[in-house]
Design a protein that fits this description.
The complex is a heterodimer of chains A (566) and B (161). Helices cover 38% and strands 16% of the residues of chain A. Chain A contains 22 helices and 20 strands. The termini of chain A are far apart. Chain B has 2 domains: 77 residues, Alpha-Beta Plaits; 74 residues, Alpha-Beta Plaits, CATH 3.30.70.1150. The chains are: A alpha/beta (566), B alpha+beta (161). At the A-B interface, loops of A face helix 1 and helix 2 of B. The structure holds thiamine diphosphate (TPP) and magnesium ion.
Chain lengths: 566, 161
C-alpha cells in the first residue's frame, strides 16, 4: 500500500470515526492539516475564536450524542480552547480536540507558539496525548475517539507535532481497540439490581433523581418506563432536563439551588432516593448533612468515583444507566408479587403531599404590568415552539429561567454549561447544534453580559447559514451576581453594572443578522413570532425587569428546604 | 489512617504527573511516592503512602483507577504486606561518638557507605518504624543530611500459594 501524509492519515481516521463536521481555527502548526481537510468532504467551520470552536463541537455532541471535533493551532490557539475543553469535561461531553504542536526537535525549547497543552489540559480532559512517534499517530487518534465516547464520556486532546503531521506513513488497518488499563463497567451487578428493586417495592415515598448520565446513555425511554411502571415522581438536575418529559404529571421539575419547591421538599422527605446518572453536586444537595436524611439511597452511575463521593449511598450500582434501567424494568416485569395498582395505592398519600406542595408554591413570578418579565419570555418561547426547540443557554439568571420555565419533553434539547457554568457557551453551542440539525429551531437564551463573551460567533453563524435565534434577556446587569449582592451584600452592586453595552439590534445588523427589540410585554410575542419566522440569524433584545430574581433559591451552604421563595 | 497504595501503570510519558496532579488537584495527601519499572518495561509500579479516613482513601483508589493509564490499584494496607524504605544518613562521627554510631548501625543492620574524619554516611533499609527508630537515636548525636527513598511495599504471598 502506498504511503500517505500524516495529515491525510488524520483525515482518514476522522472519516472512519464518522465525523462530518469540524470546528477549527488555523495557524502555523496546523497548516498541513487544514490544507488536507480543505480537499476532503468535511464541513469545516471556521469560527472566530478557538473557544467558540470547542463550544460548537460540544453543542454538536450534546444534541447528537456523537463525538464533537475541534482543531486548533499550537500556543494561543490551544490555550484559547481550554475553557471549552474544561466545560465539556465537567459535563462529560465526548470531544476530540486536535491541537497543532511545534515540530518535535523544538519541543521544550520555548519555540514560537509552543505551549505544553498536554500539561495544561491534563486535569480537564478525560485523557490526552502528545503524539511523539509517527507510528502512534493513527492508533492514538482511534484511541482518543474510543475513550471520548465510551464509559463516562469526556473530552480527549491529541497534540500533533507539525513534523509528524507532515511525514509519510503507511496507513494501518483498523483493529478493535482493547486497552488493558481502560475497561469501563457497563453491566450492573444482578444482585445489586435485585436489592434495588426490592427496596423500591417497599418504598412509600420514593423519588427518582435524574442527571445528565441518563441523557448521555440515551436511557430516557427506560427511565420513563420505570417511573411510569412504578408510579415514582421524578426530579431532574440541570443536566438531566429532558430525560423525563417536563410536562408529565410525574415530573416535579428541577431540584437544587434554583429547583422547584416541590422537588426540594420531596427529596428532603422521601424514604427512597433513586439517583440515576447524577453526581450529588453541591448545587443540588445544598448543605450535605441535611440532604435526603430520611432516605435510603440507590445510586446508578457508570463512574465509580461519583458514587459515595459526597453522599454515602446504600446501594451502589456501577453501570451504564440504560443497561441498569433495562435490567430493573425486566426485573419488575418478571416479578409476580409486583402490581402497579398496589404500588400506586401505596404511594397515594405521597402524591397527595407532593400535590399540596405544588399547589402551595408552584413555580411563579409576579406580573408587573407593561414591564417584561423574563419568565414570561421563556413561557412564550415554550408555547410558540411547542416545547420542541433546541434551547442553548448562556450562564446566569437567563440559564435558570430557561431551565425553570421551558418544559423540556425530550432529551438532547437543552444545551447548557452545567458543571463549569461558562458564560459565552450558548451562542457557539447553538451554532454546533444548528450545524447538526439545520432544520431545527435553535434558540440561545442569553444574558446581556454573557452574550458579549463570544458575540464574534455571530459572524460564524452567518457564514455557515446557521439561522440561530438569540434571545437576550437584557437586564443591564450581570444579573445572577447582582442577585447574590442584593441578598447577601446589602445591595452593593460591585462590578455588576456595565455602563457601556452595545446596541444589540444595531450590532446584529452589523453582522448581517436581524435585530429585534421588545421593550414592553405586548411586544414580546410579536418579536418571538417574527424571529421564528425569519430564515436568518436573529438577535432579540428583550428589555426585562432589571432587578428580577431567580426563585426559589437555596442560599449556598443552606439546606435545600431553606428556600427563598418569590 | 495511613494507607500504602500500590499502583500498576502503563509506562508512558507523563503518567507520573497524572498521578501527582490527581493528588494535588483533589487535595489528597502524599506522604511518600516511589515509582520504577516492573519486569515488563511496558509497565511501572508506583507505591504511594497517603493518609485519610475511609471515604477519602476510597476516593483516592477510585480516582487512581479512573486514570486511563492505570492498570491496577491495590490498598496494600488491607492485607498482610512487607514494606521497606531505604535511607542514606550522614551522621556526625567525631572521636567520642564514632564507636557509638557504629554500634547503633550494627544493631539496626545498617552499613557504612562513606567515611570522613568527622562523619559516617550510613545506608539503612527497613520498615517505616525501624527507620524512625534509627533517626530518633541518631538525631541527638547529630544528623547532617538525610535522603530517603520513600516506601515500597508488596503483599505477602497467601498461605496456599
Ligand atoms: C466565564 C465566566 N465568568 C464569570 C462568571 C460568573 N458569573 C456567573 S453568572 C454571571 C452574570 C451573567 O450575566 P448575564 O449574562 O447578563 O446574565 P444574567 O444573570 O443577567 O441573566 C457571572 C459574571 C461565569 N459564570 N463565567
Ligand atoms: Mg444580564
Amino acid at each position: 500500500m502506498g504511503k500517505i501524509t500524516g495529515s491525510q492519515a488524520i483525515v482518514r481516521c476522522l472519516e472512519e470515526e464518522g465525523v462530518k463536521t469540524i470546528f477549527g481555527y488555523p495557524g502555523g502548526a496546523v497548516l498541513d492539516l487544514f490544507d488536507t481537510i480543505d480537499q476532503s468532504d468535511f464541513v469545516n467551520v471556521l469560527v472566530r475564536h478557538e473557544q467558540g470552536a470547542v463550544h460548537a463541537a460540544d453543542g454538536l455532541a450534546r444534541v447528537t450524542g456523537e463525538v464533537g471535533v475541534a482543531i486548533l493551532t499550537s500556543g494561543p490557539g490551544a490555550t484559547n480552547g481550554v475553557t471549552g475543553i474544561a466545560t465539556a469535561y465537567m459535563d462529560s461531553i465526548p470531544l476530540v480536540v486536535l491541537t497543532g504542536q511545534v515540530p518535535r526537535p523544538l519541543i521544550g525549547n520555548d519555540a514560537f507558539q509552543e505551549v505544553d497543552i498536554v500539561g495544561i489540559t491534563r486535569p480537564c480532559t478525560k485523557h490526552n496525548y502528545l503524539v511523539s512517534e509517527l507510528d502512534d499517530l493513527v492508533p492514538v487518534i482511534r484511541e482518543a475517539f474510543h475513550i471520548a465516547r465510551s464509559g463516562r464520556p469526556g473530552p480527549v486532546l491529541v497534540d500533533l507535532p507539525k513534523d509528524i503531521v507532515a511525514s509519510m506513513l503507511t496507513y494501518p488497518e483498523k483493529k478493535p481497540i482493547d486497552m488493558v488499563s481502560y475497561q469501563p463497567t457497563y453491566q450492573p451487578h444482578s444482585r445489586q439490581i435485585e436489592k434495588a428493586c426490592r427496596l423500591i417495592m417497599k418504598a412509600k415515598k420514593p423519588v427518582l433523581y435524574v442527571g445528565g448520565g441518563v441523557i448521555l446513555s440515551d436511557a430516557n425511554k427506560e427511565l420513563t418506563e420505570l417511573a411510569k411502571k412504578l408510579d415514582i415522581p421524578v426530579t431532574m438536575t440541570l443536566m438531566g432536563l429532558g430525560a423525563f418529559p417536563g410536562s408529565h404529571e410525574l415530573s416535579m421539575g428541577m431540584l437544587g439551588m434554583h429547583g422547584t419547591y416541590t422537588a426540594n421538599m420531596a427529596v428532603s422527605e422521601c424514604d427512597l432516593l433513586i439517583s440515576v446518572g447524577a453526581r450529588f453536586d453541591d448545587r443540588v444537595t445544598g448543605k450535605l448533612d441535611d440532604f435526603a436524611t430520611k432516605a435510603k439511597i440507590i445510586h446508578i452511575d457508570i463512574d465509580p468515583t461519583s458514587i459515595s463521593k459526597n453522599v454515602k449511598v446504600d446501594i451502589p450500582i456501577v453501570a451504564d444507566c440504560k443497561i441498569a434501567l433495562t435490567a430493573m424494568n425486566s426485573w419488575f416485569d418478571a416479578e409476580s408479587n409486583f402490581n402497579l395498582k398496589e404500588e400506586a395505592a401505596r404511594h397515594a398519600p405521597w402524591f397527595k403531599l407532593i400535590r399540596e406542595w405544588t399547589e402551595k408554591h408552584p413555580l411563579s413570578y409576579e406580573e408587573a404590568g407593561d414591564i417584561i418579565k423574563p419568565q414570561y419570555v421563556i413561557e412564550q418561547f415554550d408555547r410558540l415552539t411547542g416545547g420542541n426547540a433546541i434551547i442553548t443557554t448562556e450562564v446566569g439568571q437567563n440559564q435558570m429561567w430557561a431551565a425553570q420555565f421551558y418544559k423540556f419533553n425530550e432529551p438532547r434539547h437543552f444545551v447548557t454549561s452545567g458543571g463549569l457554568g461558562t458564560m459565552g457557551f450558548g451562542l457557539p453551542a447553538a451554532i454546533g447544534a444548528q450545524m447538526a440539525f439545520p432544520d431545527q429551531t435553535v434558540i440561545d437564551i442569553a444574558g446581556d453580559g454573557s452574550i458579549q463573551m463570544n458575540i464574534q460567533e455571530l459572524a460564524t453563524a452567518k457564514q455557515y447559514n446557521c439561522p440561530v435565534k438569540i434571545a437576550i434577556l437584557n437586564n443591564s446587569y450581570l444579573g445572577m451576581v447582582r442577585q447574590w449582592q442584593e441578598l447577601f451584600y446589602d445591595r452593593r452592586y460591585a462590578s455588576t453594572t456595565m455602563d457601556v453595552v452595545p446596541d444589540f439590534v444595531d450590532l446584529a445588523k452589523a453582522f448581517g443578522a436581524v435585530g429585534l427589540r421588545a421593550k414592553t410585554k405586548d411586544e414580546v410575542i410579536p418579536v418571538i413570532k417574527e424571529a421564528l419566522a425569519t430564515d436568518n440569524v436573529v438577535v432579540m433584545d428583550f428589555k426585562i425587569e432589571k432587578e428580577e430574581g431567580v426563585y426559589p433559591m437555596v442560599p449556598a451552604g443552606k439546606a435545600t428546604t431553606e428556600m427563598l421563595l418569590v | 489512617m495511613k494507607h500504602t497504595i500500590s499502583v500498576l501503570l502503563q509506562n508512558k510519558p507523563g503518567v507520573l504527573s497524572r498521578v501527582t496532579g490527581l493528588f494535588s488537584g483533589r487535595g489528597f495527601n502524599i506522604e511518600s511516592l516511589c515509582v520504577a519499572e516492573t519486569l515488563d518495561p511496558g509497565t511501572s509500579c508506583l507505591t504511594v503512602v497517603s493518609r485519610g479516613d475511609d471515604a477519602i482513601i476510597e476516593q483516592i483508589m477510585k480516582q487512581l483507577h479512573k486514570l486511563i493509564d492505570v492498570i491496577k490499584v491495590t490498598d496494600i494496607t488491607e492485607q498482610e504486606y512487607v514494606e521497606r524504605e531505604m535511607v542514606l544518613i550522614r551522621v556526625k562521627a567525631e572521636s567520642h561518638t564514632r564507636a557509638e554510631v557504629l554500634r547503633v548501625i550494627d544493631i539496626f543492620r545498617g552499613k557504612v557507605v562513606d567515611v570522613s574524619a568527622k562523619s559516617y554516611a550510613i545506608e539503612l533499609t527497613g520498615s517505616a518504624s525501624k527507620i524512625k527508630a534509627v533517626i530518633d537515636i541518631l538525631r541527638p548525636i547529630g544528623i547532617k543530611e538525610i535522603v530517603r527513598t520513600g516506601i515500597i511495599a508488596m503483599p505477602r504471598a497467601s498461605k496456599n500459594k
